[in-house]
Structure formats: structure tokens, C-alpha cells
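HUMAN: Now follow C-alpha cell order:
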Amino acid sequence: MSSGWLETVAEKAGMRPAEAELALRKRGITADRPLRPARKLTVRRIAFKGEKRGTAQGPIDFDWSDLAAGVWAVTSERNLRGKSTVLEILLWALRGTPKGLQDDVRRWLSSVCVEFDVDDQHYVVEFAVEERVPRGSLARRRVSGEIDELDRFMSDEGFEAAMSRFMMNTLDLDPITAMQGKEDERQVVEHGWAALSGGLYFGGDHKQLLGDVQMAGLPARMLQMYIGMPWATTVMQAGTAKRELDQETEKASKAATMATKDAETARARIDRELQVAKKILEGFAPATGTAAELERLAGEVARLSPIALDLAQRLARAETEATELERLATADERAVRDLRENIVATQFFNGLQPVCCPRCETRVSGERLKRESADLSCSLCAEDIPIDEMEGASEGLDASEQRLAAAKAAAGRARANAKALGGQSKASSAELEEARQALTKAATSATFEQRRKAELEVARLEGALKERHAPATPVAVSPDVALVSAAHAEADKAYKAGRGDILDRLNAEILALGQRLGVQMLEEVKLNTNASLLLTKGGEPTSFSKVTAGERLRLRIATAVALLRVGRERGLGRHPGLLIVDSPAAEEVSPDDLTAVLSELQAISRETEGLQIIIGSANASAIVDRLGEQWCRSATGDDYLW
């Protein structure tokens, strides 16, 4: 980008130049660049083959070669003899898309070949037509005759894209960007070679000064580009980006306004609904269960549940403990009883005086009886009698009886505790069950459900109303707005400063050419940058759209030649110097007028290097007489051109 312009734009936008350059490039904005001398496009050959069908039978074989700069014509003595078809096929090959080629002719075609030069480079567009679909290639032919294939296509879309890429690059043309679509839904579109080639073709009703499409100010953009107005492309790019940003901001603003309006409407609606909901809630009796009461009952159940559980667990432990202590007391009681019975038996048997052995019935001698009394040795077995054990048994009985008494007391206390806990647990469980029943009854009450529903509705509406009172979100403005605005302002300043007297020079050239081409009583022209042409004719102000069709055609040709001449004169122009004019005689009132126009066109082409004009007309005699047979491809009588 031009560093001075970029630095100024970046400074105004508060950005670093590198950052600004990247952002501008993303928006499709580039600084003005030095232009090369305009390239010259010259058609050298038009050829096509096919087979006519239907009522028109016969082969098609047209080949017109050795064309060069100058004025050329395809002509016939009657209409509908194929002259417009030749021009349409030429346009199809150069544009990659047909302009007005008739469907039946397109179906008849089997192959097309168009050769042309761009400066001193020779190119060939050659394709077969299969079921109306073009399949072929674009190639460059070297001086040696060798072919370098540049692109290949297999469809209408591929053909158009291939020719657009080639022509835009080779002729050094910039695409024209514009906003198109319905209000608030416009999108950036890019017009390429298919639109720009309208500056080479002159047919139809001649309502536009340049091209045949008024949409998106295309004629003005074509004028600025073909004359090579300094900074015009940058102004166009920045203007399109600015309109896109303005639309984005406008849409965001409208969306925010609509959101605010919707929020206000919603607040009013919600507030009305809230008042109704509050009245419904107020209509319930105070004694009616409320959400707070339900919450209290649920809390009571939650409070009683662990108490009842704890008492039940404590009761279970107390029962277990009491049962165990009772088992131990019973065991102690059994031990005391056994001990008592043992002592009694021992004393009983010790008090007996044996007479004989209980086994063999041998009588016990008196001596043994005396020894038992004296030595405490058993009169039967002679073993010592344990007097100490007899004495200790009495003491052990006392201890066992004391232990038994303690066990019974502990078991009694444990049983009493279990009984007390049983009562508490039963009471707690009953209280818990009562709370649960109260909660269930409250929760399943029809009145409570209605009131709960009313409470929830009030809470919901209050929340919704609070949400609608949130502050509105500010409209987000793209950070590129300041940058693009600065770029557009600086580019427009440079554009106005750089265009100098180009328009004045164009006006003078168009006036002179228009007068030479026979626009009667033309005294003054004023071409504006929007491609409108104001005239003074016969002393009265008028405009391009108000003169006759024949005068409009002359002024269109004069304007195109003026763009070519002034552009090359200033080293700025981009027009390639090819003009295709269809049926000029239709706009003339007499053959003499046509002859005069052709004579001047010949003179103008000789004066203008590289200018090639190809005309299609049904006035063969006048055209051939004026141009010469070597410059014409004509059909006589009822013959067809192909």
C-alpha cells in the first residue's frame, strides 16, 4: 500500500500501520497502485462449426481470419442471416459466458475457435460444444507455433471463471465491488470480467452510456476504471466496505431498538399477568396450607426422623445388653445352686461311717475307723480327707452369692432402661408418623396444590419481570468503522486531487468525436463521474437519455473512444481498444447517415493506435461500399453468413 496514505489512515484510526494494512486488506481495500500502459485486445480469427436442425438444414462452417486493428463488419442484405450470431459467438469466447446467443444456434454448434492478441501475445480459445456445454481450453501460441495451455474448462461455470481470471489479470483490471440486495439484507458482490466486458459491446437499446447494466452504479465504476482515475478503485472499495459496516451497525441498532421495544411490551404484559396471579394467590384463606407450612412440616419430619432412629438404635442396644446381663445372672444363679448342693452332699457323705467297701463288701476294721478319726485318713482308701477344701467351699459360696446378687441388680437396671427406652422410642415413632401423615396430607391437598401453583406462578412472573428490567446491551460497533471511514476520506481526498483535468479532457474529446460521428447541433458535453452525460444541443440543455437512439449510439461510441484515447494519452487508461457494435443501421434514418458514421469510424481508427471495431449490420451495400470487401464478411441476397 502507499505508505504515506496508509500511515495517515492508521494515525486517524489510532492503529499501527501494519495492523491497519492487515485490517484493510481483510475488508478488500487496497491503496492506489501505479498502472501499466493499457493492454490492446485485438481479435484475429472467429471460426465455428456445427449442423443446422429443424426447418433449417445444412452444415455450419464459418471461418473469418486475418483480422487486425481497424473497422470490420459482418453484414448481409437481409435480417436474420446470422450476423448477430457471429458477434454473439465472439462474445461467448471472449467472456466465457454468452450474452444473447439463441438456444437453437447453441444446440447446432459443435466447435468454436477464437484467436486474439493481447499486445504481442497470441492466444487461442478453442472448445467443443456437447449438448450445449462448452468443453475446451485457453492457450497461448508462441511465435514458434508451440502451444502453452493456460486453463481448461468443462462447463459453463468453468468457462466463465477461466476467461474472467485470464482477462482480469492480463488486462490489469480490478473487480468492482458493490452492495446488492433488499434493504437490510444487502451483501457485497463482486463484478468481474462478465460485467466489465459490457464496456466493449454496443447493442440493445443504448440506455446506458457504458455497458448495459445500471445496477450498483456499475457504469460510473466502469468509467472510473477504464479511464484510470487515480484512487478511484480505492474509493470504490472503501465506499463498499463503509456501506457494509453502516448496514451492520444499522442492523445492530435496529435489533437493539426492537429488543428494547419488545422488552417494554413484555414487561407490560408480564406485569399484567403478575397482578392477576397475585389476586389469585390472595384469594386463598389464610388457614390454607402454604409453601411455608409445607416447608415447616417437612422440616419437622426431618427433625424427628434422626431422633426416632437414634432411640430405636439405643433401644436395640439396651435390649441386647439386658438380655446378656440376664443370661449372666442366670448362669451365676446356677453356679450358686450347684455349689450349695455340692457342699450339702459333701457334708452328708462325710458324716456317714462306712461298714464295708461298696465294691467288694469287705468290712472296715476298727483300726481304720480309729485312724480316720486320729489322722483324717479315709477308712476306705486311706487317702487324707481335705478339711481345707471343706472350709474354702463355704467362702466360695459367699462370693458366688454376692456375684449373683450383683448380676441380678445389673440385669434389672438394664431391663428397666430398655423398658424406658422402649417407651421413648414408641412415642418418638408415633410423633414421627404423625408428622409424616400431616406432611402427606398437606402435600396432597388439592387446595395446597392450587395455592402452591399460584405461588410458583407469582415467583416466576416476578423473576421474568426482574429479568426484563436488565439494562439494555449497548450496540456493538465494529473496530473497523473508524479505520474504513478514515480510508474512504483519505482516498476520496486523493481521488479529487489526482483527477485534475481528466474530465475536462474527456469532455472535449467526446464533444469532438460526437460531432464527427454526426450528432446534430451538439455544442457542449459534460461527463460526470457517475457516468451521466449532460448535453447542450441546439442551444438547449438536455441529457444522454433524452436524445434519439441513433444519437445515443454515436455518443456511446464517442465516449468509449475518448476513454481509450485520453487514457493512453495520460498513461492511465485500462480500455483494451476493442469495440463490438451490433446493428448500427437500425438506429440510422438513412444509408447516408450510416456511411458517414462508418467513414468517421475509419478515420478515428486510423488516428487511434490499436483500436479495433467489429460491426454487425444488415445494410450490406452501404457497409461494403464504405469499408471495402477486404474488411467485410458479407452474405448477399437470401444467403446466410454461415
